[in-house]
Amino acid sequence: MISVSRFVSIAEQVSQSVAPQWPLSQWIAVNPFWQYRNKPVEDVAAHWRYSAGSRLLMSPEFYWQKWQKNEIDKQHVTDKMVEQLQQRVSIITPIPQWQNLSRLVDKYQQRSRKMRWNEEVVLQISQTCGLFMQFPKRFQEEGSDSSLYSHWLAISRADRGIETLMDEADLNELFAELPDDPHELIKVCQASFLTDASDYALQCYCQALISDLWGWAAAFSYQDARQDSQWVFDLLCIRLAWEYLLWHLAERTNTSVHEQLKSSFNEQLEHCLGWVGYAQQYNELLWKWQGAYERSQVTRLKFTSAEDAKPSKAPEIQAVFCIDVRSERYRRALGKAGQALSINTQTKGFAGFFGVPLALKTRSGSTPHVPGLLQPSYYIQAPEQKQSVTSLLANLFNTPVSMFSGVEALGLSKLKSLLTGVPGKIATADAHAKATVCNDDGEVSTDALVAICEQALAGMQFQAFGQHVVLVGHGSHHSNNAQRAGLNCGACGGQTGALSARVLTRLLNDTTIREHLRDRGFDIPAKTRFYSALHETVTDRIVWLSDAVPGEVKRTFNAASESLASNSSEPFKARKKRSSHWAELRPEWGLADNNTLFFGRSERLASADTSGSNFLHDYYSNNDLNGALLSQLFSAPGLVANWINWQYYCSVTDSKQLGSGNKLLHNRVANDIGVFEGNGGDLRQGIAWQSVHDGKDFVHRPMRLQVIVEATEDIIQKALAGASDFNQLFQHDWINLYRLDERGELCPVTK
Amino acid sequence: MLLTEWLTFSGIRPVLLVLVGVLAFVVTNYARTNFRLDPRRRAFITKLIGCLAAVLVLIVSNNIIVFFAAWMAISLQLHSLLMFYPERDRAVLAAHKKFILARCSESFLGTGLLLMYLHTGSLQLDTILQSVTATNAAPELIQHIAGLCLVMAALIKCAQLPLHGWLIQVVEAPTPVSALLHAGIINLGGFLLLTTTPIWSNSAPAVWLLCIVSAASCCFAALIMATRISIKVRLAWSTCAQMGLMLLEIGLGYYDLALLHLIAHSVYKAHAFLSVSEVAIIKQPQARSLWRVGLIFIAFQAIVAAACWWWLNDPKWLPSALLAMALTTIWMNLYQPLLRLGVSVLTIATYLVLGALAQQIIEPQQLTSVWLEPFIALLFNAFAFTYWLVHHTPSHSLSQRWFITLNAGLYLDEWLTRFVLWLWPSHPIEYYQRRSKKEGLS
Asked: Which one of A67, A404, A630, B441 is most buried, by most CB atoms within 10 A?
């Protein structure tokens, strides 16, 4: 028997390995297995497949179909692989999965005419967590580590409903006997049904338990990272407490069931290592096919040789876009529009917050406009909002005492908006156009502002400044979507890029700041002006944020927007409708089908395809011989792209567990911490079904991120050495890394 | 002549037809976009339109057999909408619960209509009502029973406590279904009672049953609503409470207010459900002094009741209490004196104007029992104070205890769920087995 403290540390480690999920208003994509980057993806996949049933690979049928449609090329596949896959498709072999006690009880106890335990346990915990987050003043004890566990215990002890519902009279007695302290609980659990458990088995068990409430665990992981709490651990203990309850309930009321529980649970504890091995063996073939699929797809990208992509003369218009895959199509269109109008136009790719680590502060809280891994160091104070009629009405209708006469008198005021629908919206940060940048000590000094600009310019890697430089953020104009933030700019924390673009534009047009910048080696010509704009990604229109934008700039952008509208297969009217109709579930495809991250000169990417699968980030290796800049790029946009890519990947491979389900059933929870699907169950995480599937097929190709770098092997290796997180992802096959050579060929990077 | 045997457009029907028309237009339009690219779009829209057609038939039918058939058809169509995702076990459980209760409601309705047919010998609704109105004598036993049956049918249809669970649990269905149900179909209980007033309103047991059950449902559902954590479930509890109020107003003879309530609530609730995904944080009530809120409320209530007495010779206990509650909330949430006054006056004025308009369509009726309304107004006072105690003073020990009990829904639904599961076991595993068997055979 291993020691209790060992069990506690395993439980803590599993809890700490849950990736966070941001609340709806700041929802950004996250790699759910981020904390497992230090382990090979094959191991993690097999482990989670056994312990929680999670699928990190597509089904054999998927690869077979792709093979038959020639989407997987022959040179990446051996005859043996084909033969084995064919066998796999024809004979379905079930892969064993860990069964928690709640599932085993459901299996052995005759409950066909009763509520089943497993789903009811999940629902009960989920509802309790909801109360905890929705009514913090009532339920969250200040300064208490285990407040979530004790909250759950208090609610459960007071509740008489579940006893009635499950038809188990002894349940409340058992609740009363539960230890008050989570560590104590772990101790009694170990003493009662985990006496023979090995380290490995406990880890499987903890993963299986947390995966029942993965969504809440992710939401709490977000909270834990921002305060001194251990709510994920508490959640795990709550789930464990239910196992303990069911074990003892069976012991008291039904000895034959208890015997069955005992024998099959012990068998699991003994054999789990072997079963994980089996899952790994089973997956081996599929990983080969996955690799072949990815290689076949990535080699469809065509690159020009280095000589063909020589930079042209100094551009007139330079436009800096977010690296978001949706920018790709616009950048191509803009380049072509420039050619057609013979206005020399250059586009650049950079993180959409333009390197300005900002937050927007209001009285009720602050909204960061930075990537999830960063903390904002500056903020902008939003002006006090006036009380709006809508919020007063909402308050009147939502308050139990006032909703009766309130609805009778004023309910009809919703008639107009019922007939026309809720209009679409996009945040353009108009109110903050002139706001000052502050930090905790108040308004920041010119020096700090110059430092912000310097950092941004260094990242954007301007070789020369054109006459007009446009900073183009992006955002999505649509209506009535709980996951709106997921379609906005991830680098801006799920907000639009408007605020960041506005602030940086203002700073870079400031003459004093420019003077200081000149001292630091950034000589911006006097005739160069910066402008800010927002790329509206549903209709591909441009919303201008700056006044007095020169006619030629507007003309070029308009031409680009129009060419995108006319080249698209659907009429512009339909797009317009998607961006404004309140019932629309698929206003746009967002980042679906993202799969490649390219660091280099975008001119070298020659594929005619404008579907928007590529994150394009400017990188000039000749200025970066020690790889320091590339290392930074690996550690910032590289990780962001990995998060986005894995969020989509998992939402496709396992849409039930790692996707957020059917949008038609979405139900916002606990002050918008997330959504339920329907009436309850766990909080959902990941991307919704409608966002990755068009009713016939997936619109996202399940590919791990293919990172392509235009640099020498030497620079890449140096950069990898300096970017440990990224290097781990690479070493353990969470991403694939290629070097783009002079000829335009992709060469694998040595591990 | 023949047409009037089958169809009727009397009373509140024209207004309701307009309302149903608007809802039908909005909801089908919404669903068409909602299900864009969904392979089952056509199936969904067909079911939706089937349901709406049955509602239209019900509203205009003058023949009690057609009326009954339409009533049943609505519920069966709704069932197929609630079962749109048969692989979701919670959806299936809720649909089964609803199915069983709908059959109960139909049995009551059928019995009530049958008794009236036996009593009057006519199958035409308007003839039945005329002959009941014509005999001014005290109601006979058969009329009492028929009245009770109709009231029971309406109470079950409107998901009143303790048979409310399905209404909360069917948020497992797609959003347009919820909008249709909560803004449209659920009102049919009210429609039934409003169009058959002569049958039940003279029967004291029927009126008392109606008022007591609906008042209790209204107060408890509203209290429970405020303890819930997800937006759709909150809205569902709110519907349960609002239906309680509508039925209560009908029971107390405020037919005009009930009609106004039916229409205004439908519009508001349809909008609320259809815009359910717009991220908006629900403001939590701040901690406040119970005495201060209570005093403001009592003062408002006294003023409103006195004004009613002055002008109308009747203190209008219930509407006064409810209006005072709304005014209290406005007062507590607005801080500028002018704005407070303006919004309050606007609310009162709209209320009066809309109420007067509703009175043009349907006349209120004087209640026979003098004590029923003050008693219910008192109940609502208790309700308001309970709410303020629970939500404005979260640290109070009673507050915490009541909160947990309310959050559990007063443990009313658990028995019914157990019964339904026992009667009609439903688990998704069986569904999958059935489906794979079917596919295997074909």
From this structure: A404
Q: Do A672 and B287 touch (CB under 8 A)?
A: no
| pLDDT tens-digit map of A33-56 | 999 999 999 999 999 999 999 999
- Would you call B175 and A664 a contact, using CB atoms and an 8 Å cutoff? yes
Whether residues A435 and A391 share a domain: the answer is yes
Q: Taking 90 as the threshold, does the pLDDT of residue B89 lie above it? A: no
**B4: pLDDT strictly greater than 90:** no
Residues A489, A346, single domain; the answer is: yes
Asked if A11 and A136 sit in the same domain, the reply is yes
Q: What would the DSSP string read from start to end of B15-76?
A: HHHHHHHHHHHHHHHHHHHHTTT-TTHHHHHHHHHHHHHHHHHHHHB-BHHHHHHHHHHHHH
A733: its two tokens:
């096959």
Assess whether A550 and A643 both reside in one domain: no
Rounded Cα distance between A27 and B128, Å, is 60
Claim to verify: residue A532 and residue A613 sit in the same structural domain: no
Instruction: Label residue B442 by pLDDT band (50, 70, 90).
Output: very low
Please state the ipTM of this predicted complex. 0.92
Size of interface A-B (CB pairs under 8 A): 262
A305 inside domain: no
Q: Is A66 inside any structural domain?
A: no
Number of Cβ atoms within 10 Å of the Cβ of A175: 18
State the DSSP H helix or E strand holding residue A86, giving kind and residue range, or none if neither. helix A79-90
pLDDT at residue A377, rounded to an integer: 87
Note the pLDDT of residue A310.
Answer: 64
Tell me which residue range forms the domain holding A611.
Answer: 590-751
Is residue A67 within 8 A of residue A19, CB to CB? The reply is no
Is the Cβ–Cβ distance between A619 and A710 less than 8 Å? yes
Cis before B139 (ω within 30): no
Distance from CA of A549 to the nearest CA of B (A): 33
Query: In this structure, which amino acid lies at residue A89?
Result: V
Last residue of a domain, one of A588, A619, A643: A588
State the Cα angle at A234 between A230 and A238, rounded to 5°: 175
How many structural domains are present in chain A? 3
Q: Cβ neighbours of residue A453 under 8 Å, at least 6 residues apart?
A: A504, A507, A508, A513, A517, A522
Confidence (pLDDT) at B87:
85
Residue B168's identity, in one-letter code, is I
Q: Please report, in angstroms and rounded to a whole number, the separation of the first and last CA atoms in chain A.
A: 40
Beta carbons within 8 Å of A698's beta carbon, 6+ residues apart: A652, A692
Query: Which residue, A262, A15, A192, A125, is CA-closest to A184?
Result: A192
The SS3 call for residue B161 is coil
Instruction: Give B373-405 pLDDT, tens digit per residue.
Output: 889 999 999 999 999 888 888 777 888 888 888
Question: Does the beta carbon of A169 lie under 8 angstroms from any beta carbon of chain B?
Answer: no
Cβ-Cβ contacts under 8 Å for A395 (sequence gap 6 or more): A402, B283, B329, B333
A70 in any annotated domain = no
Q: Which residue has the higher pLDDT, A515 or B3?
A: A515
On whether both A628 and A537 belong to a single domain, the answer is no
* Domain annotation covers residue A84: no
Are A558 and A599 members of one domain?
no
Which pLDDT score, from 0 to 100, does residue A197 have?
86
Q: At A218, list the tokens.
A: 């992710």
Put simply, whether A385 touches B (Cβ < 8 Å) is no
Report the pLDDT averaged over residues B353-380: 87
Q: A480–B277: do the CB atoms touch at under 8 Å?
A: yes
Residue numbers of chain A with a pLDDT score lower than 70: 1, 141-146, 308-313, 387, 608-611
Last residue of a domain, one of A560, A588, A616: A588
Measured between CA atoms, how close is B418 to chain A, in angstroms? 6
Residues A321 and A255 in one domain: no
Q: How does pLDDT run across A10-33, given as a tens digit for each residue? A: 999 999 999 999 999 899 999 999
